[in-house]
Specification:
This protein is an alpha+beta fold. It has seven helices and 21 strands.
Length: about 375
């Protein structure tokens, strides 16, 4: 077992907070990762969690009383099975995400270029259906290899069975609840379109809108990557050591999804995006049970996603806001990011998060939910 001296989590996370755990294991191959997980699970009730790039984690100031398994696997390969005009890639969970995106763009492949600059490792992508600027992993994901915590079994699971939705899946640990399926991603398989390096029209209306591309405008995948990196950089969402605005976990709060009725109570200028309602399955009435009555169709109320950043700023919390004597603040570039200005503790970040939640709830009646995984911290 590749057990190592525990490293403080503040050195391994983009928020730069967190004490060293009691025990740490570095898994550099799939076999090491599977063996480490099975060993920890066989030990019984000892707390554990896996750590990839540390870009979506707020770890506490007290030592984690269990084992942290670092997923340090890397690499990807072209595998058979793709339909015409596509390339199928199998990617190890510990592979750096942006390095994968950069390689795909250099090869003239399309499907993940708008997700350039997202920090962290590839294994995290299906857990929260990572996405940006009109692209989401659900659009390219074919399947994942998982190891289940309940059994220790390794299986290949189609993307259709992962419950991929807006920043969620059956694998995601939502704040205050356990994932529907307790499992660790070992690898994932993507189908990327072969588009080459010549300019071409962008079919996806969401991507065009997000990047300001006209319907008849032709652009390259490299142009999309460069444009996304520039936009993200302007928001402090591309890691840059000297820039404390990038010492964050990215967007700290999810954009809340509310009913259409709640959305109508918000000011008209609050950005919102109606979600496609779930269509009820067709009801089949056996002929033997037909009595001439057709029950009325039922329709779920339309759900609406609203901007958490707008709610925060319009609750009186501007960019750069911080509590007195705190070393944590909202980003000076983007109100949705909570940042470490240098030497902040997890408690200082948590205190700021709780204050933001209370102000938004008081002003708009909406409770913002954190997007990062919280370990040893409660809001």
């Amino acid at each position: 077992m590749p057990e190592v001296a525990p490293i403080p989590l503040r050195e391994l996370t983009t928020l730069r907070v967190g004490a060293a755990p009691e025990r740490m294991i570095d898994a550099r191959t799939r076999d090491e990762l599977v063996a480490a997980l099975r060993d920890v699970w066989a030990a019984g009730d000892e707390p554990w969690f896996v750590l990839g790039g540390g870009s979506n984690l707020l770890a506490g100031d007290d030592p984690f009383p269990g084992t942290v398994i670092r997923i340090l696997t890397s690499g990807f390969e072209v595998v058979p099975g793709a339909r015409d005009g596509y390339v199928r890639l199998r990617v190890e969970a510990g592979q750096n995400w942006d390095e994968l995106v950069a390689w795909s763009v250099a090869q003239g492949l399309s499907g993940i270029e708008a997700m350039s600059g997202i920090p962290g490792t590839t294994g995290a992508a299906p857990i929260q259906n990572v996405g940006a600027y009109g692209q989401e992993i659900v659009q390219t994901l074919v399947e994942v290899d998982l190891i289940d915590a309940d059994t220790g079994d390794v299986s290949t699971v189609p993307a259709s069975e992962l419950g991929l939705g807006p920043r969620t899946s059956v694998l995601k640990h939502h704040y205050g609840s356990a994932p529907q399926r307790q499992a660790v991603v070992l690898s994932l398989t993507l189908d990327l379109a072969v588009v080459g390096h010549e300019p071409r029209p962008v079919i996806d209306a969401r991507l065009r809108s997000a990047l300001g591309i006209a319907p008849d405008q032709a652009v390259t995948v490299s142009w999309i990557r460069d444009t996304v990196l520039a936009i993200r950089g302007g928001k402090g969402m591309v890691l840059d050591e000297p820039d404390h605005d990038t010492h964050s976990a990215g967007s700290f709060f999810n954009n809340p999804i509310v009913t259409e009725g709640v959305a109508q109570t918000l000011p008209a200028e609050c950005p919102r995006w109606p979600l496609t309602p779930t269509v009820d399955a067709v009801s089949v009435i056996p002929l033997s049970q037909w009595d001439g009555y057709i029950p009325p169709a039922t329709h779920a109320e339309t759900q609406v996603k609203v901007s958490a950043a707008w709610l925060i700023e319009n609750a009186g919390l501007p960019k750069g806001f911080k509590l007195p004597r705190s070393r944590a603040s909202l980003s000076t570039k983007h109100t949705l990011a909570l940042t470490n200005r240098g030497g902040a503790t997890a408690e200082e970040v948590g205190e700021l998060a709780r204050f933001v939640q209370s102000r938004v709830a008081s002003e708009f009646g909406i409770v913002l939910m954190p997007e990062p995984v919280l370990v040893g911290v409660e809001l």
